[in-house]
């Protein structure tokens, strides 16, 4: 393993951490409806817990309503119950073949709770990035100990890893600011 390998590995892991944060932030509900809210809803389908997106078509009816059209008509009541039980604060209602899921407007207090949640997710991502930096620096120290690289190479490598870390933290902060603004917009 070389310094370049350590840097590449650290960079890839940091990018994955940021992608994970993006996915987690997409699940945080804002005042507008989006189908991502229902991503982790599991429906009992022939005895197996199955993601909602695999048993129904999800669409946006309007800015505050998600439309859920089951692939099988008999699944309507099961899907409705799964959405209610998912503890998302949503109350679906059937209208013929389609289930409408209105997203209620957020209160000011709820918006502040969401901002705290967003900040917590961001802090978790930053901790993950710092752990990646620590692992990479330990790998470099091990390479020096095994006499695979010089101390100068290690110093340059750890400086580069610090730059990667700083860039990842800045990217995380940008994501958090955008999401906070989105959550607080009425």
From TrEMBL:
The keyword Ligase does not apply. One of its GO terms (biological process) is cytoplasmic translational termination. Keywords: Cytoplasm, Protein biosynthesis. Residues 21-184 form the Ribosome recycling factor domain. One of its GO terms (molecular function) is ribosomal large subunit binding. Gene3D superfamilies: 3.30.1360.40, Ribosome-recycling factor. CDD domains: RRF (cd00520). It holds the Pfam family RRF. It is found in: Cytoplasm. One of its GO terms (cellular component) is cytosol. Responsible for the release of ribosomes from messenger RNA at the termination of protein biosynthesis. May increase the efficiency of translation by recycling ribosomes from one round of translation to another. Belongs to the RRF family. This is Ribosome-recycling factor. The lineage of its organism: Bacteria, Pseudomonadati, Pseudomonadota, Betaproteobacteria, Burkholderiales. The gene is frr.
């Amino acid at each position: 393993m070389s310094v370049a390998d350590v840097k590449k590995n650290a960079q890839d892991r940091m990018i994955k951490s940021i992608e994970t944060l993006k996915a987690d932030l997409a699940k945080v509900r804002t005042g507008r409806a989006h189908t991502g809210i229902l991503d982790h809803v599991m429906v009992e389908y022939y005895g197996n817990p199955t993601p909602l997106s695999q048993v129904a078509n999800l669409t946006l009816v309007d800015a505050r309503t998600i439309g859920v059209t089951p692939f099988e008509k008999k699944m309507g009541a099961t899907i409705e119950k799964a959405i209610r039980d998912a503890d998302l604060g949503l109350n679906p209602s059937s209208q013929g073949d389609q289930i409408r899921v209105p997203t209620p407007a957020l209160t000011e207090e709820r918006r502040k709770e969401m901002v705290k949640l967003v900040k917590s997710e961001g802090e978790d991502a930053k901790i993950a990035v710092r752990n990646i930096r620590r692992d990479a620096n330990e790998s470099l120290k091990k390479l020096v100990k095994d006499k695979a690289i010089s101390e100068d190479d290690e110093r340059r490598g750890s400086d580069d890893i610090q730059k990667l870390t700083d860039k990842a933290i800045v990217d995380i902060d940008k994501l958090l600011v955008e999401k906070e603004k989105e959550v607080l917009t009425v």
